[in-house]
Amino acid sequence: MLNRLFKLSEHGTTVSRELLAGVATFAAMAYILAVNPAILMNGFGADPAIGTDPTSAAYIATKGALVTVTALTAAVGTLIMAFAANYPIALAPGMGINAFFAFSICLGAGVPWHEALGMVFINGVIFLLLSVTGVREKIVASIPYPLKIAITCGIGIFIAFIGLKNCGVIVSNPATLVSPGDFTQGGVALGLGGIILTLVLAARKIPGAIVIGIVVTTLVGCFVPDGQGGTVTRSPGAFFALPASPDPVFLELSFNFLHDSASFLKILPLILTLLLVDMFDNIGTLIGVTKRAGLLDKNGHLPRAGRALVADSLAAILSSLFGTSTVVSYIESASGVEAGGRTGLTAVSTAVCMLLALFLTPLILVVPAAATAPALVVVGVFMLQAVTEIDMSDFRIAAPCALTIIGIPLTFSIAEGIGFGLISAALLAVATGKPRGFTLAGYIIAAIFFLEFFHIFPFSG
């Protein structure tokens, strides 16, 4: 039955190989179960009803709910991809997009998390329409390839910066904006040690390096004083338990921003950025993973691309309903491909592992910031590696890419960084007499960002 359903013989693989490949993918991306809730709580915690006190009942319940919905959306999205497209690709809430949700939308723009989830829903619906009509590929094609790479690199630095900030390695300073933290503090020292350990594991290509780094750092944190009479890692109430209730975030999305045109215009650039980041992330992952799996045809095209894009779109819609940021295809799926995964059965295996991990929620909840920081830093480094694909010898390419890469972390906003890159690329194309080097759709998107930046059209109020 499995052979017929997933065409195992046609792809030269076996049931056992596919199942083991799925476990390999899970091991490579399991860090998201701890990291995604940690990032999103920055935005959810802005709600006075939840707050930022990690010991409060509301905070604990919300974070537990986010662990549950992270696993559920990952499992459901991955199963959709498995049965719709028969690809060995796993999905989960996207790194970078979750930071955009928490820091740019909730904290930066002051959008309540309920409404932010509503924006994710609209993003998913638009995503689905663009995928079904084929417009999605045209929009992605409208952005120069080097700029797509720059966006990835900028988000990588942004994520690494958040990790260093969360564990106190970098702190704010009124004179120099930022400065090193106090490395003698237990949590800061533990975070630095975790970063070094995870970097070494990743450099030695140890399978599941990020997950190992989180586990080891969390365990060591049980013996490191936090300076307040306790330890950095709190003792869990239990090792196994039923999954935390998703009720605090499930179906809690709101569309209040649609009540009047002014509110909608305010969040329009944010939805646009969600679309752009989502599209680049998914397309890049699909092409990258399927190429390594040998699934591209002789012309370099992706068979069943339409089904894969629709699966991504449906997963994005479901993520808003469950109560988390946008679910996307994960580049860590390449781990399963390297282990021999070639079909959707690999993805099914990964999804089952995600569901089983729900019973480890008590352990996931006690993972400290010092243990998630190494994951953020290493993922950021992985994303930044793509910078070698940018031709920095051509100034017309280098300038927009550099502005994007440094703009995202320095403005603490993915949207602002993308805007810098698109606007400068469009202006340089016109000023150098090569306007056809930029597409019409690219000019339109750049114009929207320009109007928002200078409040010529009051998106930001």
Structure description:
With 461 residues, the protein is mostly helical. It has one domain (2-453). Helix content is 64%, strand content 3%. The chain is built from 19 helices and 4 strands. The chain is globular. The protein starts with a helix and ends in an 8-residue tail after the last helix.
Gap from first CA to last CA: 58 Å
The general outline is globular
Helix content: 55-70%
The parts where pLDDT drops under 50 for at least 5 residues are: 457-461
- Cα Rg: 21 Å
Secondary-structure element series: HHHHEHHHHEEHHHHEHHHHHHH
Number of helices: 19
Q: What is the beta-strand fraction?
A: under 5%
Summarize the entry for a quick read:
The protein is mainly alpha-helical and about 450 residues long. The protein is about 65% helix and about 5% strand. The protein has helices spanning about 1-5, 15-30, 30-45, 55-85, 95-110, 115-135, 135-140, 145-165, 185-205, 210-220, 260-290, 305-320, 335-340, 345-355, 360-365, 370-385, 395-410, 415-430, 440-455, and strands at about 90-95, 170-175, 175-180, 325-330.
Defining traits:
461 residues, 4 strands, disordered C terminus, mainly alpha, single chain, two-stranded antiparallel sheet, two-stranded antiparallel ribbon, 64% helix
Give me the secondary-structure topology.
Blueprint: H1 2-6, H2 15-29, H3 32-44, H4 57-85, E1 91-93, H5 97-108, H6 113-133, H7 135-142, H8 145-166, E2 170-173, E3 177-180, H9 186-203, H10 209-220, H11 261-292, H12 305-322, E4 327-329, H13 333-338, H14 344-357, H15 361-365, H16 369-384, H17 395-410, H18 414-431, H19 440-453
Antiparallel strand pairs: 1-4, 2-3
Helix pairs in contact: 2-14, 3-4, 3-5, 4-12, 4-14, 5-11, 6-11, 6-12, 8-16, 8-17, 8-18, 9-10, 9-16, 10-16, 17-18, 18-19
